[in-house]
Amino acid sequence: MISYEGLFYLVLGVSVYVILLLSLRLISSKSEDSDVVENESNGWHSKEELVIVDIINETHDIKTFRFKRKNGKGFMTFLGGQFLSFQIKDDNKLLRSYSISGSCENRSTLQVSIKKLNNGVGSGWFHSLEVRDSVFAFPPGGLFSDDTLDSDKKRIFVGGGIGITPLLSMIKTNIDRSNRIPLALFYGMNSVKDMAFHKELQLLEDTYDNFSYFPILSNKDESWSGDTGFISYDYITSKLSIDKNDNFYFCGPPVMTDSITDGLIKNGHVLEHIHSEKFASPVAFNPDNISAVDADIIVDGKTLAYSGKDSLLEFLEASDIDIDFACRSGVCGACKCKVIEGDVDAFTDSGLTPKEKSDGYVLTCVARPKTNIKIVI
Ligand SMILES: Cc1cc2nc3c(=O)[nH]c(=O)nc-3n(C[C@H](O)[C@H](O)[C@H](O)COP(=O)(O)OP(=O)(O)OC[C@H]3O[C@@H](n4cnc5c(N)ncnc54)[C@H](O)[C@@H]3O)c2cc1C
Ligand code: FES
Q1: Which of 134, 148, 321, 356 meets the CB 3.0–4.6 Å disulfide criterion with 352?
Q2: Which residues in the chain are classed under CATH 3.40.50.80?
Q3: Contact between 349 and 297 (Cβ < 8 Å)
Q4: Which CATH number does 48-137 carry?
Q5: Could you tell me if the CB of 329 is within 6 A of ligand 1?
Q6: Interatomic CA distance for residues 78 and 65, integer angstroms
Q7: H-helix or E-strand containing 303?
Q8: Nearest ligand to the C-alpha of residue 329?
Q9: Is 374 exposed, middle or buried (0-12, 13-18, 19+ CB in 10 A)?
C-alpha cells in the first residue's frame, strides 16, 4: 500500500518531470528560434572575406575554387545561375564576376570555376591562389536563373566552353531539389582536353532519367567517338523534340547563341522563353571609341559639371557622391540610378529587370551622359 508520504513524493516527482519536460521543450523551441534569428543575421549584404577551402583542376586551364565564409556562417539562399563579383588583388575597383558553378542546395561551401585567359588580370590572379588564401566578394547577384520560372516545360541549356558554369548550377539545383522537370544540356567544347565537368555530367545523365546530356566537340580527336561540330538549331532538333513553350538558357559565344536564337524565332519560339547570359570582361567596354562629352549632371539638388569619358559611376565617386557598386561591368545592378531628364549612352543594360528599364534606370558603371541629365540614386 502506498503511504501519504509516498504519494507526496510520487506527485512531486511527476510534477518535476512535467516541468522539466516543458522547460526542455521551451529551451529547444528557443534554440530553434535562435537558429532562425541566426539565419536572418546570416545575411551577406556587402563585400565579405571568403576563404578558399579547396581547389580542383578541372582541365589544363579551368580551376574550381571552393569557399567558406571567413565569419564561419553558412551561405544564405541564392538562385541557380547567379554570380559573385570578386575584388581582384587588393584593388577595390578592379572587379571580375564569376558564376556559381555548384548547387544552391549546398550552403556550407560555394564554388566558382574559372578559365585562365592569356594575360587575363583576374583569371590569372585567381589561378595563382592557394587553399587557405582569402578573397573578397560581393553577395550573389544576377538575373540569369530558372529558379523563379513557373513552368514544368522542358528546360534546355546550351553552353559553350566556360559558359557551362551558370547552367551547371541550375541543373544541379533542379536535380538536388528532385524537380522532375525534363532537363537537357547541349555543351560545346573545343577538344577533349577542354572537357570540364564531362564525367560529372555523364554520371548525372546515367543517374537521373529527366536529364539528357549532349556533348559536342568542335575539333576532331581520335580519342573522341561522340559528336563533332557546332551546336546549331538543327543539331538541337536532331537530338530532341522541342516545343515552343520550352525554356532555353544560353551561355556561350554570341556566334553560337545568336544563330540558335534566330533558328528558334524562325520556328515560332517567343523571346520570353529564351534567356541568355554573356561573359563580358570590363575591358570589353573600351571608352577609346566614344567621344568626350561636356554636360551638367543634376543629382541630390547639386549641379555638377561633367567633362570627358568617365563612366557616371567614376564621375559620381570622384564628386564624393555615395553610390554602391559590385561588378563594375553592368551585370549586377548595384550601381543603378534613375534618369529623370536627359539622355545617357550605356554599353549594356543586362543587370536591369525589364521593369527597371521601362522605369528609366541605367547602370552608372557602364553609362555616360549624352546630354545634360537629372538623376536620382
Ligand atoms: C556575369 C558573368 C559571369 C561570368 N562567369 C564566369 C565564369 O564562371 N568563369 C569564367 O572563367 N569567367 C566568367 N566570366 C568572365 C570573367 O568575369 C572575366 O571577364 C574573365 O575571367 C576575364 O577576366 P580577366 O581579368 O582574366 O581578363 P581581362 O584582363 O579582363 O582581359 C580579358 C581578355 O582580353 C584581353 N585584353 C585585355 N586588355 C586588352 C586590350 N586592351 N586589347 C585587347 N585585348 C585585351 C586579355 O588578354 C584577355 O584575354 C563571367 C563574366 C560575367 C559578366
Ligand atoms: S556595379 Fe554592377 S551593374 Fe554596375
Answers
A1: 356
A2: 155-277
A3: no
A4: 2.40.30.10
A5: yes
A6: 18
A7: strand 302-308
A8: 2
A9: middle
CATH 3.10.20.30 domain span(s) along the chain: 284-376
Residue 142 Cβ contacting ligand 2 at under 6 Å: no
Q: Which grid cell sits at 174?
A: 533542379
> Which of 295, 298, 325 has its CA nearest to residue 310?
295
CA of 284 to the centre of ligand 1 (A): 8
**H-helix or E-strand spanning residue 226:** none
Domain 155-277 belongs to what architecture?
3-Layer(aba) Sandwich (3.40)
CB 154 within 8 A of CB 174: no
Domain with CATH 2.40.30.10 in the chain: 48-137
- What is the fold, at CATH topology level, of the domain defined by 284-376? Ubiquitin-like (UB roll) (3.10.20)
pTM metric for this prediction: 0.88
Q: What is the pLDDT along the chain (377 residues), one digit of tens a residue?
A: 455 555 555 555 555 454 444 343 333 333 333 333 335 557 898 999 999 999 999 999 999 999 999 999 999 889 999 999 999 999 999 999 999 999 999 999 999 999 999 999 999 999 999 999 999 999 999 999 999 899 999 999 999 999 999 999 999 999 999 999 999 999 999 999 999 999 999 999 999 999 999 999 999 889 999 999 999 999 999 999 999 999 999 999 988 999 999 999 999 999 999 999 989 888 888 788 788 999 999 998 899 999 999 999 999 999 999 999 999 999 999 999 999 999 999 999 999 999 999 999 999 999 999 999 999 99
Mutation choice for ligand 1 from 61, 82, 94, 97, CB with most ligand atoms inside 8 A? 97
